[in-house]
Amino acid sequence: MKRLFAVPVFLMIGSQLLSQFFPAKNYPKNYFRNPLGIPIKLAANFGELRANHYHMGLDIRTEKRVNLPVYAAADGYIARIKIEPWGFGQAIYINHPNGYTTLYAHLNSFFPALAEYVKQQQYKMESWQVFLDIPPGKFSVRKGDLIALSGSTGGSEGPHLHFEIRRTADDVNLNPLLFGLPVPDNTPPVIQRLALYDRSKSVYEQSPKIFPARKAGAGYSIGTPLISSPSAYIGFAIGGFDTQSGSTNPNGIYEATLYDNAKPVAGFQMDNISYEDTRNINAHIDYKTRANGGPYLQQLFKLPGYTHSIYKNESGDGSIDISDGSIHRIRIEVKDAYGNRSELNCKIQYSQNDSGTLSYPGKLFYPGMWDGYETDDCEFYLGEKSLYDSVHVQYTRVNSAASDVVSAVHNIGFAYIPLQDSLLVRIKLTAALSESQKDKVVMQRFAGDKTEIRKPQWLGDWASASFRDFGNFQLVLDEEAPVIVPVGFKDGAILNNASRIEFVIKDNLDEYKNFRAELDGKWLMFTNDKGRAFIYKMDEHCPPGAHELKVSVEDIAGNKTEQIFKFTR
Q: Does CATH place domain 483-568 in 2.60.40.1220?
């Protein structure tokens, strides 16, 4: 009888402890309204896992349409405007008297008075891409005022409204679902898998043991009644997702807590995340597993280089010592922002296994240390905040047969090891170049199908540049200028019925900068949404008559192209 009675007591005590592990939130409820005029249906929630960042707000569906009215979520004033080719696209920031800021992104257009003001500032600054601070009181709004039309600008892959709530004082993002927005949710999170790690090793120098999770009554279990662990010092990660009522869209997990024999060990919670810290998602997930094509695994232990983390630890870093050889009852409870919860239960026991100590090639680097590696023609340096966990960084070198490559190809580390701060790379030329040729050299990083380039700094024949990923590095002599391609018109065209002028820029290294257009000697604004094309929409800046349009563009290496087009409107 006592043994039968022990199980519900265990669960009851665990539930009480869970409710106390994370303090209750005290955000104002019902202060902010739905920013759209249709019911909120989420395409993504706060803290959802993305490449190199957490999702920092709500993606609200707009029924696959653009130009839906967007309304101020509460009284306040428009404080900032952002327009950029990627990221938010076109965005509005509203400051509210209760100390919060709301953000509305991927907009198609602003309300007329604001749109005219922004356009004036763009022409004053001679830049389409702007981040404007608006004087307080210039554009006051009331709750429910029309502020914009929805769209799919910037980094959006389809029509929706990105909505955020931040603390105005420190610009830290908060979870909007904790503010009582009308999002019906009676569905608990889904747990898909459990992963086991040896915490005496680097997470980048092991592959976790992954156990598929399956529904078992009111909770989840794994396929084995007892995990036999050859490691005495362990950590866990989970894979899963959350949904809302009436939706099957897989969203992110809000909160998870790990218990060892009914005692809380550690947990994470998706709230209070700054954009300055959002890249730290790479310390929260098993980055290596994901980078190698595996699933997202959210770790329930904190890596030593993860600062300003989303974790709360009862003691230590969330790892568990099972060296006592006894059976440890593990429970992981997962919650959404509305209190719906799921739990996974398993048992684990240490079984001593003398597997020996593995050796790894490369130099060992640690979080918190400043160190480097040097050869005759390559040097690299990692700063105190570069790494999240200790790891051996391997280096190899090969010669390149490409005619435009003027160095060896230097492989530094692996792309599955994430960096928080930049890696400084120094490479020595293997070709004799003049000073003018050096000025046309870029440092290129490539890994798989991804490439990026930097304009280096020079000290003699050594070029230096910083990158935020490991990979292959080389110096490339780029003496090829970008190409300006007009779309749908040519020099001497008659554009009486045209609504726009469009250009596409092509470059041999696929990166360029400093696009500029001048109409009859005055700057003309071309948009560049998603970086695909430069587009001017006919307006008062191009009156009827004969015109001369001068277009210039410069690439990263400094190669410039200029073309002049004459047309009549």
A: yes
pLDDT, tens digit, 9 for 90 and up, residues 180-226:
999 999 999 999 999 999 999 999 999 999 999 999 888 999 999 99
Structure tokens at 2: 């006592």
- Distances 425 to 182, 364, 530, 556 between C-alpha atoms, Å: 50, 17, 30, 18
- For the record, the structure tokens of 207 come out as 């592959």
Tens digit of each residue's pLDDT (9 = 90 or more) over 417-436: 999 999 999 999 999 999 99
Per-domain residue ranges for the chain?
42-179, 190-350, 363-477, 483-568
Location of structure tokens 């792309």: 415
Number of neighbouring beta carbons within 10 Å of residue 137: 8
Q: How far apart are CA 370 and CA 403, in angstroms?
A: 36
Correct CATH for 363-477 of 2.40.440.10, 2.30.290.10, 2.60.40.1920, 2.60.220.30: 2.60.220.30
Q: How far, in Å, CA of 196 to CA of 203, rounded?
A: 11
For 17-31, what is each residue's pLDDT tens digit? 444 689 999 999 999
Contact 118, 93 (CB under 8 A): no
Query: Once rounded to an integer, what is the mean pLDDT over residues 512-541?
Result: 96
> CA dist 464 to 2, 154, 457, 516, Å?
70, 31, 5, 29
- Cα-to-chain-centroid distance, residue 14: 34
- Helix H, strand E, coil C: the string for 184-210 is CCCCCCEEEEEEEEECCCCHHHCCCEE
| Distance of alpha carbon 252 from alpha carbon 186, whole angstroms | 15
Please name the residues in contact with 492: beta carbons below 8 A apart, sequence gap of 6 or more: 566, 567
Q: Is the model's pLDDT at 350 over the cut of 90?
A: yes
As a three-state string, the secondary structure of 297-324 is: CEECCCCCCCCCCCEEECCCCCCEECCC
Give phi and psi for 200, each to the nearest 5: -85, -5
CB 160 within 8 A of CB 60: yes
User: Is the domain 42-179 a CATH 2.30.40.10 member?
Assistant: no
Output the six-digit token pair for 87. 């990221």
- Rounded to two decimals, the pTM is 0.93
Strands 130-133 and 76-83: antiparallel
CA–CA distance, 61 with 150 (Å, rounded to integer): 10
Strand partners, 105: 162
Q: Are strands 107-110 and 512-519 parallel, antiparallel or unpaired?
A: unpaired
- What distance in Å separates the CA atoms of residue 527 and residue 84, rounded to the nearest whole number? 9
**How far, in whole angstroms, is CA 47 from its chain's centroid?**
10
Q: Which residues pair with 89 in a beta bridge?
A: none
List the structure tokens of 120.
Answer: 């004036």
| Tokens, residue 529 | 């949404």
pLDDT at 104: 99
Which pLDDT tens digit goes with each residue over 241-258?
999 998 888 999 999 999
**What digits encode the pLDDT tens for the residues 359-411?**
889 999 999 999 999 999 999 999 999 999 999 999 999 999 999 999 999 99
